[in-house]
Amino acid sequence: MANSGTQLHPPSEKKTLWAWTLGTFFGSGLLKPGPGTYGSITALLLWYGAAHTLNPSPVALAIGTAIAAIAVTLIGIPAATIVARESGRKDPGHVVIDEAAGQLIALIAIPADWKHAALSLLLFRAFDILKPPPIRQLERLPEGTGIMLDDVAAGLLALLCAQIAHLFF
């Protein structure tokens, strides 16, 4: 979120309800401090609740999580673009649908238990905050694409590391 302080223009009076609802991931991005962490935790809790309510097979859970991550990413790009424009900021901190998408990616193929979920959360948040190359470069993409894709990359890196950890531990 290095660009969250970049004021592009004064905030708009207009707020597009669907974009703000989804962009803030149902309001979790309005919580302080650390709205990105709240967005990630909200995504994780929804995933965990679905996994334990629906009791899918591990393969079905992985496929469902991947579909959800893709859907959140595709919806997140226009939602993040609209909220950023209406906020007058390049990457407003309250837009956390990107963290939700990245966290869901990090949860693909993870066993539905708290130990693995916590590891996934910690890895994703670390990569999202530290933004090792090439993750940081993705922020330079325009509008919602840049807002979303750095978190998608952080989620992919967290997924890879979680899978390696699962193999060895």
Task: Characterise this structure.
The protein is mostly helical and 169 residues long. Helix content is 68%, strand content 0%. The chain is built from 7 helices and no strands. The protein has helices spanning 17-23, 35-54, 58-87, 97-107, 114-130, 135-138, 143-168. The longest helix is centred in the middle third of the chain and has 30 residues, at 58-87. The mean pLDDT is 93.
- Main sheet makeup: none
Average pLDDT reading: 93
List the helices and strands in order.
Answer: HHHHHHH
- Computed over alpha carbons, the radius of gyration is 15 Å
List keywords for this structure.
single chain, 0% strand, 169 residues, globular, mainly alpha
Spell out the blueprint of helices and strands.
Elements: H1 17-23, H2 35-54, H3 58-87, H4 97-107, H5 114-130, H6 135-138, H7 143-168
Helix pairs in contact: 1-3, 2-4, 2-5, 3-4, 3-7, 4-5, 4-7, 5-7
Give the structure's gist in a few sentences.
This protein is an all-alpha fold and 169 residues long. The chain has 7 helices and no strands. 68% of the residues lie in helices and 0% in strands.
